[in-house]
């Protein structure tokens, strides 16, 4: 009887020590400046981490400097980095000294498998080597017709929605993700997702996954108590877990089909399968690794590009003079509505490039990435013990007035034409695609996709803000408008 009592006291004491005494009174990380914990159980997940953490980190940078601390679940201290020099060290100079950090390795692995996002060191290098040819510029150029058709499909759906009306209020964030999902289906796997059709299985599954994530406390506990994964409330079980399973089934089918195919196309996965066959046995990806790339590419390549496109249209609606200037530039190349431009032509649109860069600066689709320390370190004079989670906030770096000037909060594409600003911006101050060995392999593809879609849409439509319409911004994972963006859309005829 006493043993049970002692064991219970010891357990409770240990939990109290780990969740309260150590993080708040003993950890060397408590010396780093930062806000005090808001909630005994949820830490800052009870406050700013639940909403737009990018904006919160930008304002905390002003208060505490470019390295500060916040508290995660059970008060665990995490360190936020908004200093480009430290970001350079973590992301670029010593990439593999700072492994990726996940709130739950188990749940993440269940979801994305052992693909490129999950691996470290030599395994990560091996996977990136195999993926390289799929993302080469030559291959991305082959994707132009798919981008072209997707933008015309988007245009046709909106034209139908406007009909004979002068102007129509459209929730642009309804169609944009579906169009981008279709694109990734075709260029990624040569597969028709038909996401714009009402019964599209993949579109529904995908929507559930990105919109019904289990709360942070579940994710955190899932690593310590595997039983948590079995007692997820039925809401998550039915919608989230079933959707994950559906996407896994599709991934399995795609990779099996490709392995057995006699003729393969130029899509990302086909090229990966071909590249893999030509690698030395020790470098080849296993079936599981290959299969994990499907879900990785789907998530990494879809939500990011779709969010970037939605923000671009939003900022163009917000800044009519920018929209007019961009349309003028576009009309010089897209002389005819059905004109199919060359790669060189879309790449030469200088102001379009500025608009896209400015959108990715103001609203980086992935507002931050997480890493951890693999050994004890000193950073900016503070002791950072091994295993400390580090959050590199791209959003805060992109909004830092010391880098971007006093108009950092303004949407001003012309800043990218200013030679002085251009020369001040290092690779670690503009990080929409992160940087270093883990930097986004799809950056060229995403930019070219946007450079094809935006002109076709802007050539055909004028976008205006809806008076009084507001939305929230969420940045759990992706920096997204919630519930979405409504704009007034009218046809433009040239
Ligand atoms: C505007 C669009 C995009 C943005 C803003 C973006 C941004 C990013 C960022 C910030 C990372 C994290 C890198 C890190 O952990 O340091 C990443 C990783 C990744 N992205 Fe993208 N991405 C975009 C489009 C794409 C596309 C179109 C694809 C593929 C079709 C893609 C595939 C990947 C993959 C596979 C990774 C994991 C790389 C690794 O861990 O080594 N991304 N992306």
UniProtKB/TrEMBL annotation:
PROSITE patterns in the cross-refs? CYTOCHROME_P450
Which InterPro entries does the UniProt record give? Cyt_P450 (IPR001128), Cyt_P450_CS (IPR017972), Cyt_P450_E_grp-I (IPR002401), Cyt_P450_sf (IPR036396), Cytochrome_P450_monoxygenase (IPR050121)
Gene3D superfamilies reported in the protein's UniProt record: Cytochrome P450 (1.10.630.10)
**UniProt: heme binding residues:** 440
What keywords appear on the UniProt entry? Heme, Iron, Metal-binding, Monooxygenase, Oxidoreductase
Q: Name one GO molecular function term.
A: heme binding
Known cofactor(s): heme
Query: Mind telling me which Pfam families this protein's record contains?
Result: p450
Instruction: Give the UniProt family note.
Output: Belongs to the cytochrome P450 family.
Q: What is this protein called?
A: Cytochrome P450
Organism of derivation: Gigaspora rosea
Q: What is the lineage of its organism?
A: Eukaryota, Fungi, Fungi incertae sedis, Mucoromycota, Glomeromycotina
């Amino acid at each position: 009887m006493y043993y049970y009592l002692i064991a219970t006291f010891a357990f409770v004491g240990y939990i109290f020590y780990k969740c309260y005494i150590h993080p708040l009174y003993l950890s060397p990380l408590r010396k780093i400046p930062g806000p005090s914990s808001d909630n005994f159980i949820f830490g800052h997940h009870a406050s700013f981490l639940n909403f737009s953490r990018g904006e919160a980190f930008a304002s905390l940078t002003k208060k505490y400097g470019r390295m500060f601390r916040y508290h995660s679940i059970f008060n665990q201290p995490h360190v936020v980095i908004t200093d480009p020099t430290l970001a350079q060290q973590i992301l670029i100079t010593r990439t593999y000294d700072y492994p990726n950090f996940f709130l739950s390795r188990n749940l993440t692995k269940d979801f994305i498998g052992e693909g490129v996002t999950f691996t470290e060191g030599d395994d990560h290098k091996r996977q990136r080597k195999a993926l390289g040819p799929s993302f080469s510029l030559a291959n991305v150029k082959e994707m132009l017709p798919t981008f072209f058709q997707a933008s015309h499909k988007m245009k046709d759906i909106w034209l139908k929605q406007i009909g004979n009306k002068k102007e129509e209020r459209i929730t642009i964030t309804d169609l944009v993700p579906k169009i981008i999902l279709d694109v990734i289906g075709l260029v990624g796997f040569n597969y028709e997702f038909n996401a714009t059709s009402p019964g599209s299985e993949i579109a529904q599954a995908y929507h559930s996954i990105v919109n019904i994530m289990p709360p942070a406390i579940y994710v955190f506990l899932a690593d310590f108590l595997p039983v948590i994964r079995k007692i997820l409330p039925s809401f998550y079980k039915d919608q989230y877990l079933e959707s994950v399973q559906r996407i896994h089934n599709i991934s399995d089918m795609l990779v099996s089909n490709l392995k057995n195919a006699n003729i393969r196309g130029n899509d990302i996965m086909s090229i990966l399968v071909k590249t893999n066959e030509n690698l030395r046995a020790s470098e080849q990806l296993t079936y599981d690794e290959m299969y994990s790339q499907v879900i990785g590419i789907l998530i990494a390549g879809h939500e990011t590009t779709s969010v970037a496109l939605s923000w671009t249209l939003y900022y163009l609606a917000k800044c009519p003079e920018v929209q007019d200037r961009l349309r003028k530039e576009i009309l010089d190349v897209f002389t005819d509505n059905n004109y199919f431009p060359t790669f060189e032509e879309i790449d030469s649109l200088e102001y379009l490039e500025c608009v896209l860069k400015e959108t990715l600066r103001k609203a980086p689709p992935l507002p931050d990435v997480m890493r951890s320390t693999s050994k004890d370190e000193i950073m900016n004079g503070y002791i950072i013990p091994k295993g400390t989670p580090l959050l590199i906030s791209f959003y805060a770096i992109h909004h830092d007035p010391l880098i971007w000037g006093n108009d950092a909060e303004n949407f001003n594409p012309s800043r990218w034409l200013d030679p002085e600003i251009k020369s001040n911006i290092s690779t670690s101050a503009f990080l929409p695609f992160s940087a270093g060995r883990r930097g986004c392999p799809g950056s060229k593809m995403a930019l070219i996709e946007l450079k094809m879609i935006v002109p076709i849409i802007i050539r055909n439509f004028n976008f205006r803000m809806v008076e009084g319409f507001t939305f929230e911004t969420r940045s759990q994972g992706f920096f997204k408008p919630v519930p979405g963006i409504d704009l007034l859309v009218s046809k433009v005829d040239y």
